[in-house]
Design brief:
Elements (H helix, E strand, L loop, with lengths): L1 E8 L2 H8 L5 E8 L17 E13 L4 H17 L5 E3 L3 E4 L2 E13 L2 E11 L16 H4 L6 H12 L5 H5 L7 E6 L4 E9 L5 E4 L5 E4 L5 E3 L1
Helix pairs in contact: 2-4
Length: 227
């Protein structure tokens, strides 16, 4: 895989889309000026974090298996953090936490042709040495806040790129989820509701039990999860 390193860019995802590379690439930036998260949220991307987008092309990759892309990216991040003696957990569908605080967000933008995924653009932002803004101290953390040793972005990058070359299973993904059987909050634009998280389906939907006892499958495009 070709690796492109930039000092500054608006967004590594947007850069990949503009350049429309014909080959698989990883684009890494020291700083993003317009980093994006899911559902159009902004993503603080000051120097000191690892901001990386991996663009891959596929042949005969069924669209109903697209959750594998999320599995591989989130588990690769978790495996990377473990190498620095950090215990991560996944907040469905795409956030990696340490305790209750977010350490990495993932933004996946897939391109489809018919019933197949033909390209994925996977953006990941890992807080390494970057300062967490005061207003985010209660909800975000970094690698250096969780270990006593200083870690370089180069070390984290090397480990993450290696882990991204592996293939992981949904069982690997679920192994980082510790709230099955527990009450969680589902948030939509206009309301919140308490449900019990039961499992995750093979296509990536959260299986929940509503307060009236009914069981439903929820897409991450519909709601976000609050632990």
């Amino acid at each position: 895989m070709k690796i492109i390193e930039l000092d500054e860019v608006d967004s590594t995802n947007e850069y990949c889309k503009r350049e429309n590379f014909a080959q698989d690439v990883a684009v890494i930036a020291r700083r993003q000026t317009a980093g994006r998260g899911t559902k159009g949220r902004s993503f603080v991307s000051d120097e000191g974090g690892l901001y990386i987008t991996v663009m891959r092309h596929y042949n005969n990759f069924p669209a109903d298996k697209a959750f594998r892309i999320m599995i591989n990216s989130c588990v690769a991040v978790c495996k990377t953090l473990e190498e620095f003696l950090i215990k991560p957990r996944i907040r469905w569908a795409n956030d990696v936490l340490v305790g209750s605080k977010k350490i990495c967000g993932t933004l996946i933008e897939n391109t489809f042709c018919g019933n197949n995924v033909v390209r994925s653009i996977v953006g990941m932002g890992i807080n390494v040495n970057n300062e967490i803004p005061e207003e985010l101290n209660n909800i975000a953390t970094s690698i250096t806040q969780n270990i006593s040793a200083k870690v370089t972005i180069g070390e984290v990058k090397r480990v993450l790129l290696r882990n991204l070359e592996n293939s992981y299973s949904i069982a690997d993904y679920k192994s980082y989820i510790d709230y099955f059987g527990k009450s969680v909050v589902l948030k939509t634009a206009d309301r919140e509701r308490q449900v019990v998280a039961l499992d995750i389906s093979d296509d990536g939907r959260l299986i929940i039990k509503e307060q009236d006892g009914t069981v439903n499958k929820i897409s991450s495009a519909e709601v976000s999860l609050k632990l």
